[in-house]
Amino acid sequence: MTPAARLSAAIEVMADIEQRRRPASDALKDWGLAHRFAGSGDRAAIAGIAYDALRRKASAAFLMGEDTPRAVLLGMLRLERGMDVGAIARLADGARFAPAPLSEAEQKSLRDGSLAQAPAHIAGDYPEWLDPHLVRVFGEERAAEAAALARRAPLDLRVNTLKADRDKTAKSLDHLKVAPTRWSPFGLRITLAPDAKNIAVHSEPAFLGGLVEVQDEGSQIAALLAGARPGMRVVDFCAGAGGKTLALAAAMRNRGKLVACDTAEWRLERAGKRLRRAGISNVERRALSSERDPWVKHHAPKGKEGGFDRVFVDAPCLGIGSWRRNPDAKWRSSPQDLAELIERQHAILDSAARLVKPGGRLIYATCSLLREENEAQAETFLDAHGDFMLYPAARAWAETIGGDYPQSDRPAGDNYLRLTPAAHGTDGFFVALFERRANNSNVIPEPEHSEGVRNP
């Protein structure tokens, strides 16, 4: 397919997404099934164009003065891919399979349009209903923070230390131009240009051999802060497909017990394949009916503490921090979604806390940037659970990772860790740690270790 034909196809896909209000992945899959002549390279290019348009949907429509799929695609080419009006006109020239030629109004918008007077939610490409929520966290910087979430994410890999080390693995992936991540001592990053093809990392020998897993640097950091170590008893309470389970198991060196729980059994099945590839043998997968599943009650009888050293809760959330990778999700979110998630997070934390033994820790993480899902949840939890106390994230960082603690102009302080793509180059992430008081003590015990793992 020609570049012009790919653009036409992306306009079709965007129209399908808008008309049927469904995930972009479904629309792209159906388009591919209906156009089997399109090769894998064509489908990947069309997906890239469509996802870029979703990332810049609001600003592109503002630039063009209308919000049709065609207008959004044309505006995206200018804003995201840096194409001038002449280059865009050569794609949309009305030739066979190409979009219709640019109108005079479209040419003027592409040539003279600007976001200088755009409101924050337009400049930052996020739903207007979220504006007051982002004001509470970022104030006047909210548009800049959100704009970073509207750019294409890099591809981050986590080196599996059960099988490899970072330097040797980086050399084996030198053809992909990998570089060490800034914060995670086990991460490798592949930076992608706006119009670059996706990297087929799943076909790389290093991936097939279990030496690396795809995992954003922020997610790697969240797992490291748990401080899981060999011989511990650990629960990954919302394990999903196992990304953090894999990281926790590697930290435990296959020694001790790690229980991966989730309410979706099919996600745990996917995790099983990843665990086998990574050479992990200390994980028990357990499907739960809900956060109040009998398994939880059995391991945390009423009125008694549980027996686990670490309980990791990667809570379901609005997912603002992952918008770079899931740009269509932001346009399908609603205030009702947020309200329901806040209630669910509260229930999950309340249940997971029962599994933590005295002196053990509960780790709460989200890929959200909203105070309601982050600090407010931590404060509510502490108010309701007097037997827990906050364990400062900066202290956990010093004990597990070492080196400089990631601050920004809008830090969450030493108590909590907040990562954003604008300030830290990661997905948006939040981490709070709580320690269960031992023997009714009000004093946080001395650090369990302090050397970190910056040079494993």
Write a concise keyword list for the protein shown above.
single chain, 456 residues, alpha/beta, Rossmann fold, 2 domains, 8-stranded mixed sheet, 4-stranded antiparallel sheet, 21 helices, 12 strands, globular
Description:
By secondary structure, the protein is of the alpha/beta class. The chain has 21 helices and twelve strands. It has two domains: 3-113, no CATH class; 217-436, Rossmann fold. It has helices at 3-20, 24-34, 40-55, 57-64, 69-79, 85-91, 104-112, 120-123, 131-138, 142-148, 166-172, 205-208, 217-225, 243-251, 265-278, 294-299, 327-332, 335-353, 375-384, 393-400, 421-424, and strands spanning 155-159, 179-180, 187-190, 212-214, 233-236, 257-262, 283-287, 308-314, 356-366, 388-391, 417-419, 429-436. Strands 5, 6, 7, 8, 9, 10, 11 and 12 form an eight-stranded mixed sheet that branches. It is globular and about 75 Å long. The model has no long low-confidence stretch (mean pLDDT 90).
Q: Summary?
A:
With 456 residues, the protein is of the alpha/beta class. It has helices at 3-20, 24-34, 40-55, 57-64, 69-79, 85-91, 104-112, 120-123, 131-138, 142-148, 166-172, 205-208, 217-225, 243-251, 265-278, 294-299, 327-332, 335-353, 375-384, 393-400, 421-424, and strands spanning 155-159, 179-180, 187-190, 212-214, 233-236, 257-262, 283-287, 308-314, 356-366, 388-391, 417-419, 429-436.
